[in-house]
Amino acid sequence: MGNTFKSSRLDLAVDTISRDDIEELIGWLREYPRLTMADETKRFEQAWSDWLGVRYSVMCNSGSSANLLMCAALDRAPSAKVRKIVVPATGWATTLMPAIQLGWQPLMCESDSRTYGMDLARLEELLKRERPEAVMLVQVLGVPNDMTRILALQRQYGFDLVEDCCASHGSTHQGRKVGTFGLMSSFSFYYGHHMSTVEGGVVCTNEEDVYHRLLMLRSHGWLKDLPPAKAKVVMDKYGVDGFHAPFTFTLSGYNLRPTDINARLGLIQLRRLDDTIRIRVANHLAYQAALRGCVDFAECIPGDTISSISFCAVAKSTAERRRVVEALERNTIDTRIFTAGNLGRHPFWIDRYGEFRAPVADRLYECGFFLPNNQSLGVKDVGMVCDVVKKALQ
Ligand SMILES: Cc1ncc(COP(=O)(O)O)c(C=O)c1O
Fold first, then answer.
1. pTM for the full model?
2. Does the residue 14 lie in any domain?
3. Given the CA of residue 190, which atom of ligand 1 is nearest to it?
């Protein structure tokens, strides 16, 4: 993989930024380009939109910031305001935290026993009973949710759908990339993800109005980043002249901007993304084949593909997990808990809402663990890891 940095042990995450990438970056820096957000960011956003198959992308400084931007864009929508949002028990802390920070009521949803995404029977119960205005789902570790059924629920109950795809670049549902189903979707470009811009993230959408809100929210809420025709609408409405317009603050915003250095790295990394995805998909399938019947793991809907960031395995018991984890550690194979397990069992949630207990999310919390999947590994490495797991289970 293009002179990628290698580690001495089987790490969960390895650097996707190679020596060649750094050399190329240094060559660009020698031209003394502008480093703050400018043309490279625009170029990356266009390239990312083309790769994903959406109309608009807004790059920002992390996947967590992308999630915050998505929620803020819903919150500042001129039409219906969000009061309640369904959030998954399995995902990442900063998938849910923006909802709390915005003062919404988050409704936690049990995980699906097949995909580890949202349990759709529980989701439907929440939709019927609570009538939430939005649903934030996570494509958990690259395993797509059953998006066909979720879109059917959306048609029936009506809600804004946002997708956290921060760890699922290139996964597909029925041939369509995740991140193209929701009103907005987020991706992370942090170290160890499918590609990296050091820190970085992006929000994607097909809606022009949403795109314009995201542009303002990313940069202080100001008008400066809007296309002139769109800015003029605001200027006319509020009687703002051309001198004041760039520094007129329209929405209550943030500064979540990337730099052009991140964007330049993004352009370099994007060239290799499809190769990386192919490796991750093949490794994931190899894990499934080798470990079937030994441990549990997520399965996708037939016809979907899993481009995973790590392989998530679930032992029969916590004691069995301990045995496997100890064996992995003895063999210098990196492991950790399954993402955050059940987010409803973490202090930030318990202190506000009380503990959330649900059988599937609890099982992931108590028995789940990660096995390495990244672009520096091949199916032979996967076989070696699986041998260690299987031996520990004997
Ligand atoms: C599902 C999910 N959402 C959000 C994030 C946050 O991304 P970042 O680390 O870029 O803030 C992660 C990080 O791994 C993630 O896995």
1. 0.97
2. no
3. 10
**How much is the pLDDT for 369?**
98
Q: Which domain holds residue 244?
A: 19-270
Q: Name residues contacting ligand 1 (CB within 6 A).
A: 62-64, 67, 91-92, 94-95, 138, 164, 166-167, 188, 190, 201
**What does the pLDDT read at residue 26?**
98
**Of the residues 188, 197, 308, which should be mutated to test ligand 1's pocket, given the most ligand atoms within 8 Å of the CB?**
188
Say how far apart CA 299 and CA 326 lie, in whole Å. Answer: 26
Q: How many domains does the chain have?
A: 2
Q: Are residues 259 and 213 in the same domain?
A: yes
By three-state DSSP, how is residue 43 classified? helix
Collapsing DSSP to helix, strand or coil, 133 comes out as coil
306 and 217 share a domain?
no
Q: What is the pLDDT of residues 163-219, one digit of tens each?
A: 999 999 999 999 999 999 999 999 999 999 999 999 999 999 999 999 999 999 999
- pLDDT, tens digit, 9 for 90 and up, residues 20-60: 999 999 999 999 999 999 999 999 999 999 999 999 999 99
Tokens coding 122: 């529980």
Look at strands 172-173 and 84-88 and give their pairing.
unpaired
Question: Do residues 90 and 118 lie in contact, with contact meaning Cβ atoms separated by under 8 Å?
Answer: no
State the CATH number of the domain containing residue 368: 3.90.1150.10
